[in-house]
Amino acid sequence: NPYAGLVSHLRASWLSGKTRPMEYRVAQLEALGRFLDDKKQEILEATELDMGKPSFEAFFSEILLCKNELNVTLNNLSQWMKDEHVDKNLVMQLDSAFIRKDPYGVVLIIAPWNYPIHLFLVPLIGAIAAGNCAIIKPSEISKNTERLVAETLSCYLDSDCFAVVTGGVPETTRLLENKFDYIFFTGAPPVGRIIMTAAAKHLTPVTLELGGKNPCYVSDTCDVTNVARRVAWGRFFNAGQTCIAPDYLLCTIEMQEKLMPALREAITEFFGPNPRESPDFGRIITDKQFQRLRALLGSGRVAIGGQTDEAERYIAPTVLADVLPSDPAMQEEIFGPILPIVVISNMDEAIDFINARPRPLALYAFSCDSKIVNQVLERTSSGGFCGNDTLMHVTLSSLPFGGIGNSGLGKYHGKFTFNTFSHHRGCLHRNMGLETLNTPRYPPYTQQKLGLITTTFEVKRRGTCTLL
Amino acid sequence: MERMQQIVGRARAAFNSGRSRPLEFRMQQLKALERMVQEKEKEILAALKADLNKSGPNAYSHEILGVLRELALTMEKLPSWAAPHPVKKDLLTMRDEVYIGYEPLGVVLVIGAWNYPFVLVMQPLIGAIAAGNAVVVKPSEVSENTARLVAELLPQYLDKDLYAMVTGGVPETTELLTQRFDHILYTGNSAVGKIVMAAAAKHLTPVTLELGGKSPCYIDKDCDLAVACRRITWGKYMNCGQTCIAPDYILCDPSIQSKVVENIKATLKEFYGEDVKSSPDYERIVNQRHFKRVKSLLEGQKIAHGGETDEASCFIAPTILTDVSPESKVMEEEIFGPVLPIVSVKSVEEAIEFINFREKPLALYVFSNNKQLIRRVIAETSSGGTTANDVIMHSVVPDLPFGGVGHSGMGAYHGRFSFEIFSHRRACLIKDLRWEVVNKLRYPPGSMEMMHL
């Protein structure tokens, strides 16, 4: 077991108690902030090398959003760490009942390649805030970022308590043989199953941030220009390699016709007449992914874009019209700059279409009529929902971010990350006196004692009369 | 077995019909459950007596009262629990609707245990119904009378398709676990907990595992021993020691060991009289297998009190073991019986080290007049839950989450926490299609100047 030494070293640090004091956690979090500030340029460069990530996007997702999470956490940490006192009944008035937020111990964070800093750093913020030690396993696919993290993160964080492990599938498999106290995984559903199965061997709780096909319903009553912009933005951000990107559009044939010129215009507005030359449009991460995506272009008909360049791993912002449910583009999460439009006749059909498929991580509905937006919301199920926009619901740290069913289990962001990485321990601190109050519960049992217990422990419905 | 597929399929179709979602429907089902418990009280108590030799008042206060209380609390609070929770907005979302919606998960599986066979299926069931789910209930086959009764009663009071009963043992449960559920709540032991989680992993089903372990009980030299020992005796020997949060073993300084034994002995007489076997308030071990298991833990031990057994009636007397070696068998597994080992430790540091060396327990107990010491023991250990200066009682505070950590489990329930684990918290952001000007900041072409805005 090649990682046993590392894990036990971290566990020893954990048992020493050094990660518990708030000052320690704050110091580590502030160090993470300095990492983001000092290494900003390197991060922008590494992600550009990895997937042609435009600097604007990289700054927004890898730096800005991370710093927001850091600040929310630092601003609220003392509040979050406090014991939460709860209501007590009659017999316990002199006692103290509260929920403690205990760290779990040594946690494992496994991150994917598409937002390679953000997707390990934001969970790590919560793990540190909650008082844990952590092993970070960045994705080997975004290899420039992996190297940056492996080489520089340890300069900022306490190496007794935080470590970076690099490698691919074999290394991750060996790593998972060890016992962790929590595992946080972001990636694809099939791998999520493997992680959870490995976690089961040690009864390790998990959060799995997975994915799926995020539907985007566009009703007939809507401002076509704004819809097109918001959808195009969400779809083509990071060249489509976003777990919450609108994966496919559902609309009527009339709307498809109206949307097409609007989408074309939005794309031109964003990326110019030749997106290949725009510094604001990314590239596909690997040759394998590029080939997978290129094969999807045969679905429906290419209405916008469709150009590719293998050497650059460039796929133009593409819209496919008249796509059938049986087409290749509708069989898997696209994770690329291709937007299929599936034509349906009405909202009910769209809702049935969505509900016949695995529950997605995100769901989008566009309409000027708020009743329609609410109908789609109420009659479907998804990790999160955004009406009349894309992606934005995850930028608010007061909203929980996570999936349901195939798209994942657990949630994070803001306080939810802190809660994810803490064990909520119910504590009751009783008084040693007043022993007579306990008499009714002791044997020998009598009906009279039972009557007393019932009276003191019962919760009465409001409106029912009581003798007390 | 196709039967499992059909049962779960029917529950899923019933859930998909949408009828379990309206609050009125859920309240109606909860009210029906309340009626069931009130109308069938006699039958429920009889089943508990047959399964565990639980006396009437004991069974009522440990199982029925808890269920009625949970029902009353849930029906009272459900509207506020189920309402969308608005959250803090930022500058960009000021004009938008931002909230967390509570939605049902779908079809929930509740697997019960045999030691508190009624409350351990009912309490999760209440939460699952309240959250708007369909539920499949699999009570423990070991407590067969209660299982049979619940299987008969539930369909008489609740919607038959939405809330289904499955009875049986290991083969039936294994078959059941191949089906896809949207949450599984399992109460039982860690070994089976691993099997449940591995089965759930195939479908990416979230789980709540209420497991067990050895719940330590540290008695400080500075404490009212008479009171401490009375409370410990109550929690240890109730249900014949077959309680997941019973104090499993005692840690104390060797100088107070004999006083502890004396006090417990005195309390036992007070509770059960001279002849424990004839006390109507003392239960029995659930079956022969567990009887043999617990009896074997006595081998080679110094029995300070008790030790009598009677295989025919699965009777094991309340027993105290002294000077127990940490390496002995009785200190390896959760005892789940009326045997109380006392292990000597010379200091609170040693106690803390002893506890931390072992798997995280479901409950942890510490008795002391010294508040600082109590705070220290709690702060330097981890456990599912904790009670200081008493035992068991943290599990009856309705607003405390009840669950384990590490080997003792994951997730928590009771009251509001039940509602939450059986719900999906869906993040909702509803924007306006106008006000596009605000969005322009984020669209390409981007520039570094824009970023500094």
Automatic annotation (TrEMBL), chain A:
GO MF annotation terms: 3-chloroallyl aldehyde dehydrogenase activity; aldehyde dehydrogenase (NAD+) activity
Keyword annotations from UniProtKB, A to Z: NAD, Oxidoreductase
CDD domains found in the cross-reference section: ALDH_F3AB (cd07132)
One cellular component term from this protein's GO annotations in UniProt: cytoplasm
Pfam families: Aldedh
A Gene Ontology biological process term: aldehyde metabolic process
Boundaries of every Aldehyde dehydrogenase domain copy: 19-422
InterPro entries: Ald_DH/histidinol_DH, Ald_DH_C, Ald_DH_CS_CYS, Ald_DH_CS_GLU, Ald_DH_N, Aldehyde_DH_dom, Aldehyde_DH_NAD(P)
Catalytic site: 209, 243
Family per similarity comment: Belongs to the aldehyde dehydrogenase family.
Name the UniProt record assigns to this protein: AL3B1 dehydrogenase
Species per Swiss-Prot/TrEMBL record: Cinclus mexicanus
UniProtKB/TrEMBL annotation, chain B:
GO annotation terms (biological process): aldehyde metabolic process; fatty acid metabolic process
Family: Belongs to the aldehyde dehydrogenase family.
Listed PANTHER family: ALDEHYDE DEHYDROGENASE, ALDEHYDE DEHYDROGENASE FAMILY 3 MEMBER A2
Entry-linked Gene3D superfamilies: Aldehyde Dehydrogenase, Chain A, domain 1, Aldehyde Dehydrogenase, Chain A, domain 2
Designated name of the protein: Aldehyde dehydrogenase family 3 member A2
Cross-referenced SUPFAM superfamilies: ALDH-like
Keywords for the protein's UniProt record, in alphabetical order: Coiled coil, Endoplasmic reticulum, Fatty acid metabolism, Lipid metabolism, Membrane, Microsome, NAD, Oxidoreductase, Phosphoprotein, Transmembrane, Transmembrane helix
Name of the encoding gene: Aldh3a2
Residues annotated as the enzyme's active site: 210, 244
GO terms assigned for molecular function: 3-chloroallyl aldehyde dehydrogenase activity; farnesal dehydrogenase (NAD+) activity
Major enzyme class: oxidoreductase
Complexes and interactors: Homodimer.
Coiled coil: 23-50
Listed EC numbers: 1.2.1.3, 1.2.1.94
Source organism per UniProt: Cinclus mexicanus
